[in-house]
Amino acid sequence: MEEKLRKLLNNSYTPYYKYPVSSIIIMKDGTTFNGVNVETSSPASGICAERNALYSAIAAGYTKGDIKEIHVMSKTEDDCWPCFICRHAISDFCDKETKIYSHTYNNRIVSHTVEELCPYPFGNDNLKETNSWKVAS
Ligand SMILES: [Zn+2]
C-alpha cells in the first residue's frame, strides 16, 4: 500500500500549497479507487485526494456502506488526516467502524475509525424531519 500511495503522489497537482496528498479507497468487494488532491487558481474549486477517490467510487456505482477502508498519504513526515470537508463526506458514505489509515512518507501508519474522527456528525438523520422542523422553545 505504501508504495502505491507514494507513486500516486506524483499525480497530485499542487502548484500553490505544494502539499501533495494521495488516497486509496478499498471497497468491501476488493475494488480500489485512487485519488489525489488537485488545486486550481481558485482555491474553492480544487478537491482533496480523499473526496476525489470517494466520488470516483460513487460515480462507479458504489454507495453508502460499500467502503472497507481509506488510506491517505502526504509527502511529509507528519500524519495526514482528512480535512473536515472530507470528514463530512466520509461520514456520509462510510460506516462508523470504517478505518482511515494515515501513512507518512517515511512509512509510519496510524489508523482511526470514522467515529473517532467524526464523533458528532451532521448527516442524513438530521435531515429526516426537514419538513416538520419545530423550533425548540
Ligand atoms: Zn479534504
Structural features, described:
The chain has 137 residues and is of the alpha+beta class. The chain has a single domain (2-122), classed as Cytidine Deaminase, domain 2 (3-Layer(aba) Sandwich), CATH 3.40.140.10. Helix content is 26%, strand content 22%. The chain is built from five helices and five strands; from the N terminus they run αββαβαββαα. A five-stranded mixed beta sheet has the order 2-1-3-4-5. Helix 3 links the parallel strand 3 (67-74) and strand 4 (99-103). The chain is globular. The termini are far apart. 28% of the residues are buried.
Brief digest:
The chain has 137 residues and is of the alpha+beta class.
Structural category is alpha+beta
Number of domains: 1
User: Spatial order of the strands in the main sheet?
Assistant: 2-1-3-4-5
Uncertain parts: none
**Distinct small molecules bound, one entry per kind:** zinc ion
**Rounded radius of gyration (Å):** 16 Å
Largest beta sheet, briefly? 5 strands, mixed
Let me know the number of strands.
5
CATH class: Alpha Beta
CATH fold type: Cytidine Deaminase, domain 2
- Quickly give the CATH architecture: 3-Layer(aba) Sandwich
**Which superfamily, in CATH terms, is the homologous superfamily?**
Cytidine Deaminase, domain 2
H/E element sequence: HEEHEHEEHH
Strand content: 15-25%
Task: Count every helix, treating DSSP H or I runs of 4 or more residues as helices.
Answer: 5
Helix content: 25-40%
